[in-house]
Amino acid sequence: MPKGSPELTQARKDEIIAACEQLYQTMSFKEITLKEIGEVTSFTRTSIYNYFHTKEEIFLALLKKEYELWIEELQVIMKDNERLTRTAFAEKIATSLEHRRQLLKIMSMNMYDMEANSRMENLVEFKKAYGMSLKTFAELVSKFFPAMSAQECQTFIYQFFPFIYGIYPYTAVTDKQREAMKEADVGYVYMSVYDITLKCLLRLLPEE
Questions:
Q1: How confident is residue 88, by pLDDT bands cut at 50, 70 and 90?
Q2: Separation CA 143–CA 72 (nearest Å)
Q3: DSSP label at residue 4
Q4: 205: Cβ contacts below 8 Å, ≥ 6 apart
Q5: Contact assessment for residue 57 and residue 117, using Cβ atoms and an 8 Å cutoff
Q6: Distance CA 71, CA 42 (A)
Q7: What is the CB neighbour count within 10 angstroms for residue 121?
Q8: CATH 1.10.10: does it fit domain 1-52?
Q9: Type and span of the H or E element at 18
Q10: Would you place residue 2 in the very low, low, confident or very high pLDDT band (cuts 50, 70, 90)?
Q11: What is the pLDDT of residues 155-178, one digit of tens each?
């Protein structure tokens, strides 16, 4: 790690993450390389290695950022509402995920490879954000559904969070995929992030 203040180091990391985020708007994970990232930053590819050793580490840092933004929105829901009905709760969570399409897009990738190709310290930082999202979501459920036991709350969360990983592929179908499904005679009904999340939550949440 090059010498410099923690603030400067973080600023340089943020620049690299932002460059990756920019490229990810028009390029696939496979297409993006450290060389490509270096071309839209003030760094050379060699300099990037001072902060991230692999592109997987950069994507993991971007995913950490997305989790932190989602956590902020969940905390606002908790702060701004004393009570929520089952439907209102589902609507607010669905809206929060609709705002985080990039979170869902990265989550739909092969997390095993992304985590395997990241150094332990980077993986631990990411897991802290992931863990905080679980904690914050559990606090939301406890606040708005006080009749649920701790076990019921945990079961609900561990049903919903794995579901989140599959949202993006069902809501971002390409023309090529549509054509393939048409030729294979596979029926496809488009659902938005909001719709598919809302329907899932209303099935998982206890009846009022």
A1: very high
A2: 17
A3: S
A4: 86, 89, 90, 145, 156
A5: yes
A6: 30
A7: 9
A8: yes
A9: helix 6-23
A10: low
A11: 999 999 999 999 999 898 888 988
Residue 67 tokens, joined = 């989790």
- Residue 20 is encoded by which pair of tokens? 């990756």
Q: Tens digit of pLDDT for each residue in 20-68?
A: 999 999 999 999 999 999 898 887 778 899 999 999 999 999 999 999 9
Question: Quick one: average pLDDT of 116-139?
Answer: 97
Quick one: 161 exposed, middle or buried, by C-beta within 10 A (0-12, 13-18, 19+)? middle
pTM given for the model: 0.91
Residue 116 has pLDDT above 80, yes or no: yes
Token pair of 54, please?
Answer: 């692999």
For domain 57-204, give its CATH number from 3.40.50.720, 1.20.120.610, 3.40.47.40, 1.10.357.10. Answer: 1.10.357.10
CB 71 within 8 A of CB 129: yes
22-27 LR contacts (CB < 8 Å, sep 24+): 24/62, 24/102, 24/105
- DSSP labels, 89-145: HHHHHHHHHHTTHHHHHHHTS-HHHHHHTS-HHHHHHHHHHHHHHHHHHHHHHHHH-
Query: At 22, which amino acid appears?
Result: Q
